[in-house]
Amino acid sequence: MKHIIMITLSLMLLINTSTAAEKIVVDGSTTVGPIAKAFAEYYMGLNKDVNITVSESGSGNGAKSLINGTCQVADMSRFMKDNEFKAAVDKNVFPVAHTVALDGLPIIVHPSNPVKRLTVEQVRNIYLGKITNWKEVGGPNMKIIPISRDTNSGTYETFEKMVMNEQKIAKGSEYVGSNGAIRGRVQSTPGAIGYAGLGFVDRTVKALFINGIYPTKVTVTSGKYPIARPLYMFTNGSPKLGTHIYSFVNLYLTKKGQEIVERLGFIPVTSY
User: How remote is the C-alpha of 89 from its chain's centroid?
Assistant: First the structure.
């Protein structure tokens, strides 16, 4: 049955479903952004009559764009909130979630930092301002510089919920506008600590063991890594079967879509 679904979706991707040029606007999460951009590039390569634009304004802004009708697909690294659903329904918009990938949220430091592991509680206390020097957690005598995502980010809200227990991050922490910006700040700052999507960890930063578990595909999918979340694309209602938007948001179900998700360092939700 899986193979039949995969073949059907793959064939649909190869068929132009309309004669007029069609535009699909995608907006939202900077975490989901690389997946959406790669999907768009691949899909437009197969369908020359489609123009897909992808913006990365943050999960909250993606939800607003879908509600206001300025995008057809909202990328979100968290689930839509109750107040967002209400605002959508009040405007006759009915959000439907498509879970396109799974993601861990590694805690990252500069590669030169000898600290290899922290607990969730230690990370929380760092961001609460209770731990301010790396020597307090077995590292060098060096000031800790906490880097956080901006508060409109779904990644921030995941961190706030799963690590901070919804306590506010201490004053003095730095805020940046994307996962890439967190990585850039950490890779250039020996005392920094940050958090970013699994696909943003490379050799320029070091991911830590958290509660004794290292963030990998296996530990995230098994539920062992303590900081993980699904990644979503939201549409207004369920897209009509056979349309370009249907094929685009369901690309994650195809073998090619899974290859793209894995290539970007994220985790497919299905496997063929």
Answer: 25
Question: Mean pLDDT score of the chain, rounded to an integer?
Answer: 92
Which domains are delineated in the chain?
Answer: 2-102+230-263 (3.40.190.10), 106-221 (3.40.190.10)
CA pair distance 127, 194, nearest whole angstrom: 10
For residues 169 and 204, give the distance between their C-alpha atoms in angstroms, rounded to a whole number.
25
Q: In 10 A of CB 241, how many CB atoms?
A: 10
pLDDT of residue 17: 42
CB-based contact 222:229 (threshold 8 Å)? no
pLDDT tens for each residue of 194-215: 999 998 999 999 999 999 999 9
Residues in Cβ contact with 185 at an 8 Å cutoff, skipping those fewer than 6 apart: 147, 174, 176, 192, 194
| Whole-number percent of the chain with pLDDT over 70 | 92
Strand partners, 101: 231
